[in-house]
Specification:
This protein is α/β, with parallel strands linked by helices. It contains 13 helices and eleven strands. Helix 10 packs across helix 11. It binds nicotinamide-adenine-dinucleotide (NAD).
Length: 350
């Protein structure tokens, strides 16, 4: 068992990482009112909801399970009204609790609903995808999508606790494991050379699983350190966007269909590091090391696409064609900095 404390004054909480913690979740949860509204999705609930609810019942809590259809389309403003209504029918009060059991979609949606229901009710994250365990469940960003774009309505709302059961990763499809690994590799690149080297030495998913508890806790600690310095995303927290500026433009170029977020971030990290190395801003050899590890984990380093259109996407996205764009670069593996430039920085990439 590993514990990471996120120190945010009255919003502080613990992240507990432990193999098979799900079956003991009731021991780690505090809910004065006694009622718990559990939200999960149609893939995760059949696998894990019973284990969680049995443990909560054993601890004396009354539970209601609410299901959303698996997938990003459910993280939508339209999903929230039926959730509020189900919470009211269950008689959930401000003394009660909401639990998100699932990937980033369930976590973001449930967190947003919890932040607004009765002006805010406590919630706990039990992330089940690798991405949610190392990234989205930590830091309190919760949101839903609008037709115009992702995460356009949201808030900062910290959970009361995050319980991470590494055993549930056994059922995560490979494509989502690979997606999550892009964020794990990102932490190594921007903040922790030792983590990068540890990842480099891992040969397959089975070996990763043997070290999952330590690696996931390490990632949560790195994110917690950044969130403690910049809870509201006005400074250092931007470092977490390494690879995301170019990556997001690639996702948009392919209409958010052909390229997954993790794959796009991998390509973004590689492209920006090749360019910054060429510009003398990054230690020589960093891009080659990054490409090797991305490939090792089944991620891509580049993609055939019209670069002019991708650059236009980047510029339009930030509404700052020709104006300043702050990107994240690494000076070497494990060290990162914010670099004000324009989308023209990416002009030379092929
Ligand atoms: N809040 C933040 O700080 C933050 C950060 C990064 C990403 N996000 C958001 O996270 C979302 C993506 O998260 P995601 O990749 O977890 O997507 P997801 O929630 O859609 O989960 C991926 C898929 O894996 C399935 N799944 C999850 N856990 C499983 C398990 N243990 N076994 C079997 N199947 C399982 C899900 O049902 C889904 O089909 C996006 O909406 C993104 O915007 C938020």
């Amino acid at each position: 068992m590993r514990k990471v404390h996120v120190n945010l004054g009255k919003n502080s909480y613990d992240i507990i990482v432990e193999n098979e913690i799900l079956a003991k979740a009731g021991e780690h949860i505090h809910c004065a009112g006694g009622k718990i509204f559990v939200v999960s999705d149609t893939n995760v609930a059949p696998l894990y909801a019973n284990t969680l609810i049995d443990s909560l019942n054993k601890a004396g809590y009354e539970c209601e399970l609410y299901l959303i259809k698996a997938g990003e389309l459910s993280k939508n403003i339209q999903s929230i009204c039926p959730m509020y209504e189900a919470m009211l029918s269950f008689g959930l009060t401000r003394k009660d609790l909401v639990i998100a059991l699932g990937g980033g979609v369930v976590g973001d949606l449930t967190g947003f609903v919890a932040s607004t229901y009765l002006r805010g009710v406590d919630f706990v994250q039990i992330p089940t995808s690798l991405l949610a365990q190392v990234d989205s469940s930590v830091g309190g960003k919760v949101a839903v999508d609008l037709a115009q774009g992702k995460n356009l309505v949201g808030s900062f709302f910290q959970p009361k606790a995050v319980l991470i059961d590494t055993a549930v990763l056994a059922t995560l499809p490979d494509s989502f494991y690979i997606d999550g690994m892009a964020e794990v590799i990102k932490y190594g690149c921007i903040l922790d050379k030792d983590l990068f080297e540890k990842l480099d030495s891992i040969k397959d998913r089975a070996s990763f699983m043997e070290q999952a508890e330590a690696i996931i806790a390490n990632c949560c600690q790195l994110k917690a350190n950044i969130v403690e310095r910049d809870e509201l995303d006005k400074g250092d927290r931007m470092l977490l966007n390494f690879g995301h500026t170019y990556g997001h433009a690639v996702e948009k170029y392919f209409n958010f269909e052909r390229v997954s977020h993790g794959v796009a971030v991998g390509i973004g990290m590689s492209v920006v590091t090749h360019l910054s190395e060429k510009a003398g801003l990054t230690a020589i050899g960093s891009a080659a090391r990054l490409d090797k590890i991305l490939t090792q984990y089944g991620l891509d380093t580049h993609i055939e696409a019209d670069q002019d259109e991708i650059i236009a996407n980047m510029a339009n996205d930030k509404k700052n064609l020709g104006k300043e764009l702050v990107i994240v670069l690494i000076s070497e593996i494990g060290k990162s900095f914010l670099y004000p430039t324009t989308s023209e920085f990416f002009r030379e990439c092929k």
